[in-house]
Design a protein that fits this description.
alpha/beta; 13% strand; two-stranded antiparallel sheet; six-stranded parallel sheet; 10 helices; 215 residues
Length: 215
């Protein structure tokens, strides 16, 4: 029986890549006077955040300074919530504790979630990049949030993680957590279908999917 739901953030709940691409390209051009391509950004996407910044900007500045300059640019390129994502969290909260696991910086993520209307104060835990140096697909990435659920009396096997790609699944599997994918955000549904993994096409299907698989 499921007792908690944890969501991935980037490209699961929120469309971050498109806006970030534009922000990084502008930052490279206006602040550091070089051309950064969309192809390079997409190729590096998914790396740990500091490694991602170094891959894009090299040694033009310190990582912390680049991040600070990036944070000044991002208001010009706001993220968008995926359709139904805010609504599904509010609906699930009526029955389950809901948390977030993301590699993003805390201040940026919380600011983003607040602007997009997510019920931050009702979530049992929001894990960000400052909470661990480990990244998916390593299952140890779940350790901070699992310490919280353990205190709540919830076992990993009683948790569902909702993500958008295979790395999310591999990390969940290793941590003993159940997994449901949201298809066609970053990963085509055929990938999940081929591997016989549970997936949904729309957030409106999530509650029923969880109930039907693990009632």
């Amino acid at each position: 029986m499921i007792k908690a739901i944890i969501f991935d953030y980037d490209e699961t709940l929120v469309q971050t890549l498109a806006s970030r691409i534009r922000a990084y390209i502008e930052l490279a051009k206006e602040k550091y006077n070089f051309v950064l391509t969309e192809e390079k950004i997409r190729k590096a996407f998914g790396l740990p955040y500091e490694d991602f910044i170094k891959e894009l900007f090299g040694d033009v500045d310190s990582v912390e300074t680049i991040i600070k300059n990036y944070e000044k640019v991002t208001p010009k390129f706001p993220n968008s919530a995926y359709s139904g994502s805010v609504e599904v969290i509010n609906e699930l909260l009526k029955k389950y504790p809901v948390g977030i696991l993301s590699g993003s910086r805390r201040n940026m993520l919380l600011s983003d979630m607040e602007k997009l209307g997510y019920p931050i104060d009702k979530l049992f835990y929001i894990q960000t990049g400052e909470d661990t140096q480990i990244h998916k697909p390593d299952p140890k990435v779940f350790e901070p949030i699992l310490k919280v659920t353990e205190k709540m009396g919830i076992k990993p096997s009683e948790i569902v993680y909702v993500g958008d790609d295979i790395k999310d699944y591999d990390a969940s599997l290793g941590a003993g957590i159940k997994y449901v994918a949201i298809a066609n955000h970053t990963t085509n549904e055929e990938v999940f279908k081929t591997r016989n993994l549970p997936y949904i096409m729309d957030f409106s299907e999530l509650h029923q999917k969880i109930s039907s698989l693990w009632s």
